[in-house]
User: Fold these one by one.
Assistant:
Number 1:
Amino acid sequence: MLKDKISLLAKEIHANVVENRRHLHANPELSFHEYQTSAYVAQKLDELGIKYQKMANTGLVAMIKGEKPSDAVVALRADMDALPIVEANEVPYKSKNSGVMHACGHDAHTSSLLGTAKILTELKNEFGGTIKLIFQPAEEKLPGGASMMIEEGVLENPKPDAVIGQHVMPLIEAGQVGFRSGKYMASTDEIYVTVHGKGGHGAQPQQNIDPVLITSHIIVALQQIISRVADPKTPSVLSFGKVIANGATNVIPNEVYLEGTFRTMDEDWRARAHAKMKKMAEGIAEAMGGSCDFNIVRGYPFLINEEKLTAEVRAYAEDYLGKENVLDLDIWMAAEDFAYYSQVSDACFYRLGTGNKERGITSSVHTPTFDVDEESLKLSTGLMAYIALKQLGN
């Protein structure tokens, strides 16, 4: 059976996948600077005899064509960039690049897709159709490598019928995966605000226009857009994580700097919220005698898993792993630039369990102690190969 062949191959190449993952983990590179990572992936594709082309500077797209006749095409995506985090793990494969760490599992994603490529290459004479392998840069930084690769034609010549991606999740134990159909992850926008006033002595507020007070009113008032303007059925989050008021105990500064994020799952509401936030902030500042520069940098769209495709992929996962190892996911207000693929193609983005409570592998992504249970890399390679071939109709 195809499933048994893939499972056996996944076990046979596991040590190689772990080796690749550890190399990538020890040599992380930030978004748009994945030069050595890209070269390493290219070398591994060369070893497999898989042709590829470069895109988006450090991205790669490769193709594996089955030897049986079929025009079906499916794309598999992995991201390659790391985060500006100092790794706290004491492991043999600890990051060698100071202040840079694979704290979101992209090393696991890339090594897994290389493993999947090896499995598919071994089975070329047993399937029909074409599989695109997308090794994408810069998932972690706007404008996102996905948008750049799409602009450069990664979804053309040939056009895939579906795009499928997987992402590590330490909250799920290794050996399991999670799915959600429909809207799954949020859009993300960055907010940058400068509130201008008139600084002076804190003991003489009547002579000043206090930008600290104005900013506090803006922060509180903007939350009312979420609680009183947004449809309660539409998830929305507005959070401010950076406030700089460079005064002192008795010094009111001239201006206050503010940064935040806005996330939702409805594009029409997203646009209306932008306009309302800007108007409210500027109005409050003006009413209190100051002024406000309110800028929104539009980020990734929301991610939607096409329902028919997701149902099919979930069924393949249940067949490969057993129903008891396929979980339901809730909406996730984090963002992912895989969302760009989901906006222009049928797409399915699922979660790969990488946690292991018994071994203490529980740290969240984007933390200095994040790691994965490498046993999950048997599943990540085999399952994606099985999904791809089943989706092609084999």
Number 2:
Amino acid sequence: MNISQQLVNGARLLSAGGEKEKPEQPSVDQITATAGVIPDFCRGEMVLNVVVLAQFVAIIFTIVIPSLTASIFADLFLISIFIQWIALMSVSALCLARPYLNRLPERRALLMAYLLLLCITWLVGEFALWILATFELVSSARPSWYGYFHAQNLMVSAIINALALRYFVARHQLRLKTQSEERVRAEILRQKIRPHFLFNSMNIIASLTQRAPVRAEAAIEDVAELFRLMLDETKDLVPLHREIRLARKYIKLEKLRLEQRLNVNWHVGSVPRTVKTPVLILQLLLENAVSHGIEQLPEGGDIDISVGMGEDEKHLLIEVANPLPAKQWEAGPEHGSALDNIRLRLRDHYGDEASLKIEKDTGRFRVIISHPAWENDQQ
């Protein structure tokens, strides 16, 4: 099979793979809408915010209402217990009801959540009266001021819950919108990887066609195999061993172009085969090392790649180091599109559990990535 025939076959493979690509990505508004209108009140941060807010309300009530006992601190203690009781019950109820509420239309979900909070206020007030009557602190569970007690609680609860629910929902929607925008940007960047990689691969083949047609023919086969691996995978996370296999083929192509100028040293530790990593992340790191380091040096240099588990055995560590030309030593490619792409994708997949660090020492530029080793470790 000659070179032209292999180019045609490679094009057919790319075309066939392209048909399997994901459908059009949802917009920011669509992603935000599908996440639900009710925030996650099961999160510790949310519970802490509600407790702090409830305590501020208790302090204000202690100052405003007439004294209940001879000591203002005793008043604050009693009011705090009652209000925190309502707050914690409300958080628990919204935490449990959230999956059901988020299946409803937005307005209906908010109305049901609001009514649920008012019901909890009434129930806690009723239970408090029962406790007081049990310990004979009041004459009965239905004292003369029973109606006024519930009316006052429900009126205050209606105002505070309306403001608090509006605040938490607005903050939740802002957070979702921010995350969705980052996700869309990351997806746009990720979709640019394959055309960019194809362009680089064709350049490699073009440089070999005249002076080394046999090697160019082998390069076409490697490109076809690379794109078969890339197009067959539709998930964002892939097994690490598959990512390493793809990266080795990419390095093989680059060595055809750079020859003796490029040397790669692999250091792969003992890593379980179930470990996953974002697709093409290692290839992007290597492409960054080649374009910003090896290509800029007439004599070339070594790229050191280390892959292994962290000390906690729960995080995967990936380190890529390359030489850096003197003219780039001060600034360095910290803000290159490849590293920006990786930062966004790590943040999207793992949040604060992942990190990307950059180090410079003794003429070398080093990128160190750490992220949860398994998909179910995501936060």
